[in-house]
Description:
The structure holds three protein chains of three kinds.
Chain A: E1 10-14, E2 26-32, E3 35-42, H1 50-53, H2 62-67, H3 74-89, H4 95-124, H5 128-148, E4 157-158, E5 161-162, H6 170-193, H7 196-202, H8 210-215, H9 220-225, H10 232-235, H11 261-285, E6 304-312, E7 315-323, E8 331-335, H12 337-343, H13 345-349, H14 354-364, H15 368-372
Antiparallel strand pairs in A: 1-2, 2-3, 4-5, 6-7, 7-8
Helix pairs in contact in A: 3-4, 4-5, 4-11, 4-14, 5-6, 6-11, 11-14
Chain B: H1 2-9, H2 19-56, H3 73-83, H4 94-110, H5 129-137, H6 139-150, H7 154-185, H8 190-195, H9 205-208, H10 210-226, H11 238-241, H12 251-276, H13 295-314, H14 322-349
Helix pairs in contact in B: 1-2, 2-3, 2-12, 2-13, 3-12, 4-6, 4-12, 6-7, 7-10, 7-14, 10-12, 10-14, 12-13
Chain C: H1 3-14, E1 20-22, E2 29-32, H2 37-46, E3 54-62, E4 67-74, E5 81-88, E6 94-96, H3 105-116, E7 119-121, E8 149-150, E9 153-154
Parallel strand pairs in C: 2-5, 6-7
Antiparallel strand pairs in C: 1-2, 3-4, 4-5, 8-9
Amino acid sequence: MEVDYSGDIMTLNMGPQHPSTHGVLRLELKTDGEIVADAVPHIGYLHRCFEKHVENVDYAGVVPFTDRMDYCAAMNMELGYVLTVEKLMGIEVNNRVRCLRIIMAELSRIASHLIAAGTYGNDIGSFTPFLWCFRDRETILDFFEETSGARLLYNYNWIGGLMHDIKPGLEEKIIEFIDYFEPEVDNLNRLLSDNFIFIKRTAGVGILSPEQAVSYGVTGPNLRGSGVKFDVRREEPYLGYEDYEFDIPVGLGEHGPVGSCWDRYMVRIREVKESCKIVRQAVARLTPGDVREAVPKRIKPPAGEVYMRTECPRGELGYLLVSDGSLKPYRLKVKSPCFTVMSAFREVSRGAMIADVVSILGSFDIVLGEIDR
Amino acid sequence: MESVAQLLEKIPKYDALPETISALMPILASSVILFAMLALAVLFMVWLERKVSAHIQDRLGPMVVGGWHGWAQTIADALKLLLKEDIVPASVDRVLFKMAPFIVFLGAFAAYVVLPFGSSSFVTDLNIGILYIVAVSSLSVIGIIMAGWSSNNKYSLYGSMRAAAQIVSYEIPAAVAIMTVVLFTGSLSMVDIVRAQTGGIQNWFLFRNPFLFLAFVVYFIASLAEVNRTPFDLPEAESELVAGYHTEYSGMRFAFFFLAEYANMFLVASVATTLFLGGWTQAVPASIMPQIVPGPVVFFVKALILIFIQMWMRWSLPRLRVDQLMYINWKVLLPVSFALVLGAGWMATL
Amino acid sequence: MNPQEIAALLSEKFGQRIPESDADALNPWSAVDPSSILDVCRFMRSDGRLEMDHLELLGGVDYKDRIEVVYVVYSMKHHHRYTLKCRLPREEPHLSTVESVWKVANWHERETYDMFGVLFDGHSDMRRILCPDDWEGYPLRKDYKTPDSYRGMPV
């Protein structure tokens, strides 16, 4: 539909303090009544210059910093970093570490997607899914707490291993949780995903075509929501993901064009089920072993440069690590998935309505800690 | 009001008062009684809403204050709101800003005058009762626009413009749905409408014929929109407009908006009870079992069931978008309600 | 294509404009003459054998004597990755924008400008992105000194 924007334009500052900007993001909306002629995102309110900090701490000390980027999926953030350093140093970890890392990463993905789905329901105006999701996320956080002592920022993955082994009996509890949780996802679908109003609000809104998505460097569930079947766990497997059986859900466009907010949301819901499958397989593959077996006494990688990416809940997380052979990283550049998807926001939301802007932003599932770093 | 006047006359030396005052006294007294009743009902409804939402969301809700299931929580909250600082931002239009909450509340409160809670428990029985309710309850739009405009906040402005568009639009199908009932009673008086439904559940307009049943559905949906409840809570859409037209309000003035919201909820539930659910009459015909339960109790129970459904919807449905809201009104509810008037009119002539 | 083939293809196509390559490194790379970065990127994006349609990362590294802008590109179709590096002087570094090749470069280049002071010629919106517009200095340069205060607020 062609809209004439020549009428009076009002500037509406959405954020940095606003219930649905998911953090301290400012959107400068040029509105014509309820229609948004232009939406300019302004980021940087949470900028801590993490990349500068890490140049002054040793390699192991970087892990807590990475935790604080995407605080909703801290396990995955630190996993990406330790894998990068291990790749540079050529460290091989044993099977137990690999399986435990996969279990923790996938549980963290479930927890993160639960936040995404819950807050998205909240953005659309339904409050109940939010609490249902947080109830189940709570159990996962309990597992993390039992294992690492922290509920949000774990510092659990170490270079060359893990901080601790899991407590005996935790694997049974995890399987018990997965058994309970899988039907719970269908419950959530009945409440929210298949709700008529929810579909009307999200399908056909904020369409990101596959070409746009690739050009904007959109990754992860947002890319798959546009119908591109691409997952780093499949394309460049790490930790032995190639041996696991799981599907890569993509947006199918059941309700309107592919690449809408509903598709992006639904990809996350389907991924949660795939993660459950992976966790089951990883628990079955657990073998006894020492989780600190390969932890080096002194972390001093050779001079060189390495790039490594992992599949985080919000997309590909890439680390470019430059080492000068000293005890501290010379440069660590992070490719943040939310940063790239946010750069597509302006184009996607042009001509939408105010309520759609919230809907699009929620479907991108951004975490400002990672955008601003 | 008559019974209140009779009670007042028992006060010693009441006759000695000047005539102007003794004429005003019953009005004043019944307003106070009505307000107290309404405040109590709202306190209870807020508690109920918190409990209902909590159990829908797999939590417990308030459990501590007052002992049994946190019954005193809303009283504590109300006290807190009344004692809080009344912040008036620097750049607001002070007069309008301060007045707005009371006008919003007034619109809801004035309509209570004609609600018949029991066969003799009502303030007055206007012969244009239902018309009066439709007219007076839309007064609150003026208050909402005043609040939105005077707040000098863009979110408030958006909220109030949405509210105005929404309430004015949805009044039409609601009024047309009310008309179908009036076709059968031939009277606009609320008391007459209830009296036309005495004699058991089969005489309630809800079950009288299919057209009236659908008219109830139309009225219920439209009334949800009129009182800004989910899925029609766009004027205060938290995720888009922060808090809509009452973004800048705090303390007691915010409490009045809150009170008005719940008073409105109770009002539309009461109107639906009166029009479709037989008001104070019991479900079993008096020939089988005479009415032992007092009328007001029956009335409250029916209204509370409707309120429970409102809450249930609020905590399970997402919110509509503004264009979808208008679509439902003008392209779905309005044609349907006109068709219902035609159908009901045909039934009434049979 | 494997990195050796990509490196060979690039030096065959661009000759002197690719002064240095290391295809056997952990992260295979080629240095690109700063003036021809746009041509190289366009070629890598459009050539049927490469089809690098995904700009994974664009960022700077300060090597004290020079600033390097690193481009990590990937092909969704052929599943290969390659790294390009542009070596720039520390004084007034500027580079041509690749916004027209990958739209995501817009924000990445703004971040590189913000952190390293590399100006991108032809960029549509060359503003700071993470720091405030009136921030002084480029934080990720190695000789950066944190100011004591910003607009009267202690940093």
